[in-house]
Specification:
By secondary structure, the protein is of the alpha+beta class. It is 28% helix and 24% strand. Helix 5 crosses helix 6 and helix 6 crosses helix 12.
Length: 461
């Protein structure tokens, strides 16, 4: 099967707002200090299911709407909006229970014909992912000609990180199947309160900065051939290749993690791509998303650990490394991995997250971001979602997900690489990239031994 896929037609047959079952009182939910380091950014996921063995599509859709209504009663911020709260003079989450836009559609394509490698190509993005006309969350459910079903979800990242989105989708599936969510979320803001007085080191100033939307995309607008355009591509990486990278990154007796090794490999390839286009003296930044839930509960007992594990919102930091392209070219993979390991170590402890919370307190309500993305340098965010349930264990009651992936709208100007578990073998990875076309083109040629264009041969369809 070619990775090109096919063009197919899709027809929306229903577009409704799913309300909240037994809504509570209308109220405001303030952003935490860790929410404020996430700029306005939409991210989503799509889940592909083989044809259900029982139940018509209309019955399944009605069941999904009913269970979504119940799920929103538990995860109520997703049925709200982000607007200015005049009383406190800052943007907050307005929990107004306005509901979620829910589109039902049918398509004349088949699951096996979808272009998973290039979701931009008149396929998954254009036809199977929802638009978000209002609020912070939207859903589209599409039946394909083969009877397979695709569920597309789109979130506002300011309200939920990847861990939270995964928690919600898992709970929605559990409510659909059993009537009970897998985890009851907590929205208790006091867990992320700053200390008094705030205490932080200069390392936080070196890592974060005010968020100012850029008018250009990392100076690549100066290119005349269109290679600066942002595209989405999905690759398959075999477990043996990941182990090989890990060995190359772990010289001199220092064992590096698989994520550290792959991040180093990607950082070096992007730098080589920059050199290839004559930008050898330009800076190349790579940031890695670090989940702080377990770290913030360190030393506070099992109860605090459980509470943080159920916390819904953003609990991430974004440490980064910065090197000129020509410098990265001359470094071995092991040396690059040492750089990655060292900048990650600054953000993998409890004190870092406590300092970050304190630092943001003195900047509220100003939006902030990783310093890597505060300028016009080439900057890529790497996020590791190998432990997310949405890619292997989601079951709405008609069978487990056959394939799932994250999704970034094409118009997003943030460069993202997401690592996910393989759908057949956990040792393998799916790697989703949202990068300028010129970097993708270079990586596809220069790293073809590691990154294979994703096609149906790798999937359970």
């Amino acid at each position: 099967m070619s990775s090109r896929g096919m063009v197919f037609r899709v027809e929306a047959i229903d577009n409704v707002v799913v309300g909240v079952e037994e809504p509570w009182n209308n109220h405001w939910l303030p952003f935490t200090n860790l929410d404020l380091i996430v700029p306005p950014f939409e991210i989503g996921s799509f889940l592909c299911f083989n044809k259900p063995s029982n139940g018509s599509f209309s019955t399944i859709v009605n069941t999904l709407k009913a269970s979504l209504s119940r799920a929103l009663a538990v995860y109520y911020p997703l049925a709200g909006d982000i607007i200015w709260n005049q009383a406190v003079e800052e943007k907050q989450i307005h929990c107004n229970y306005q509901g979620v836009n829910f589109v039902t559609a049918v398509a004349d394509g088949q699951l096996k014909e979808l272009n998973f490698y290039n979701p931009n190509n008149e396929g998954i993005e254009a036809k199977l992912m929802p638009k978000k006309p209002h609020g912070v969350f939207a859903v589209q459910v599409t039946e394909l000609k083969c009877g397979g079903i695709v569920i597309g979800c789109l979130f506002d990242h300011r309200i939920a990180d990847g861990y939270s989105a995964d928690m919600f989708i898992s709970s929605w599936a559990d409510i659909t199947r059993t009537g009970t969510p897998s985890m009851f979320p907590t929205f208790e803001r006091s867990y992320l309160n700053p200390r008094c007085p705030p205490i932080y080191s200069t390392s936080i100033d070196n890592m974060f900065a005010p968020f100012l939307p850029l008018s250009k995309t990392v100076n690549d607008q100066n290119d005349d051939n269109g290679d600066h355009s942002l595209v989405n591509r999905t690759f398959y990486v075999e477990g043996e290749q990941i182990k090989r990278l890990q060995l190359l990154a772990s010289e001199n007796g220092c064992m590096r993690s698989k994520v550290e090794a792959f991040t180093s490999f990607l950082w070096k390839k992007i730098a080589l791509s920059m050199e290839d286009s004559g930008k050898h003296n330009r800076v190349c930044n790579v940031a890695v998303a670090v989940n702080g839930r377990r770290r913030l509960s360190e030393g506070d007992g099992e109860e605090k650990e459980k509470l943080m594990a159920s916390y819904f919102g953003n609990v991430i930091s974004m440490p980064y490394g910065s090197k000129r392209a020509q410098e990265l070219r001359g470094m071995s993979l092991a040396n690059v991995a040492t750089e990655v390991h060292e900048f990650l170590q600054t953000a993998t402890n409890k004190e870092h997250f406590l300092e970050l919370i304190d630092w943001v307190e003195e900047k509220r309500p100003q939006p902030l971001t990783s310093k890597a993305f505060a300028g016009e340098e080439m900057s890529v965010m790497v996020s590791a979602g190998q432990r997310f349930h949405t890619m292997d264990a989601i079951d709405f009651g008609w069978g487990k997900v056959a394939f799932g992936s994250c999704y970034v709208p094409s118009e997003s100007t943030d460069f993202l690489v997401m690592i996910m578990p393989g759908p057949v073998n956990d040792e393998d990875w799916i790697v989703y990239m949202h990068l300028p076309l010129k970097h993708i083109n270079y990586i596809e040629v220069d790293a073809s031994d590691v990154l294979k264009p994703l096609n149906v041969d790798y999937l359970k369809l």
